[in-house]
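Reopening this ticket.

The earlier resolution said the output was attached, but the attachment link was broken on my side. Pasting everything inline this time so it's all in one place.
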Amino acid sequence: MISAETLDKAVAAGLISQTTRDQLEVMERAVALAPEARRADDEGDEENLRLVGGGNDLFVTVGTVLLSAGFFFVLTTLLPGQTFWIAGILAVFTWGLAEIVTRQHRMKLSSSVLALIFMAAILVALALQVEASFGIRKPETIWQLLALRQTASRAGYLFLGGGIIAAAIYFWRFRVPIIAGAIAIAFTLLAFLQTAIILYDSVTTGAIAPPRLEDVPELLRAALYMPLICGLIVFATGVAFDIYDRDRRKIWSDCAFWLHVVSAPMLVHPLFIMATGQNVVFGHIAPDANATIMLTILILGFLYVALAIDRRSLLVPTLAYFGSLGIYYLVNSASDSTGIPPFALILVVVGALIILFGAGWQRIRRIVVKPTLPATVIRRLPPLKA
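Inline output:
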């Protein structure tokens, strides 16, 4: 069987096109997948994430971290106080290293680490350039903060826009999936910045009355719509990638994984607060009947969506969030009557759910999804394993 690395090298050398490469991979898998191998593949219900390429990848990742850290400390010694140049040189160094690790050898984990180092260096350089260009300093009074409107908007667009462009170029060159998550986060921050500017302009022009102190909790609650909308957009993009690559043979399914990881917190937190009436910043929630019902519906809803799209990456942040916040208040009354610490009950509930869905994920997915969705929708989702 031709390895994926060999096919990637053939595309890079111009011997075959990307379309031909994908067709060869699908054909090779179809020929090689005998009935015994097919049964083994069905029993193995992994999410097929190409995050680690094996023991050698782990070995090279350690070397990548050590080499990058050593090069950074060399730069800080040779260029003391020149943070901008240090960040720029480190970004160039990381790019050159990625030409070997990522382009030539397609190592998964070390490529992700290099991508994160590159983005961190670029963002530091952009932040320093923005600070030098616009003379931004920490405001000491509210009036100084309000006076930063024009400067902050231009600086924000330069910083976030530059980060998005750098990430897009890096992704175009190296096809590292984790960059998709970085781009999604940058676009989300850009949307927050634009929303804040629109609200500021509306207040200063008199279109919106300035909020009073007692209006702040309601204002914060209304602000939850922004991350919710951004989370839905990122989630929809991830689902679109999953539909496009439903067999999860290409890079787009790996990009979808990171998009689901980014979207999950932005969906869970606003929906949890809106449904249960919790204070915006992890305040008190009364575990009454309505909160219990709404919280149960939310958990079941996220479980169903995760099963439908076959993404445990959406479910893990959900269970972590509900386990640390929602379930705590729901089992608090039980702990008061039994004397069992709430933290212990949280561990039992969340741990049981993780083991249950981890051990029987494909079986549960088949039982729940197949009878509840029309066949036309199921044909567009990741295949249900028999």
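Reporter confirms the inline version is readable. The two ends are 25 Å apart (CA to CA). The chain has a mean pLDDT of 78.
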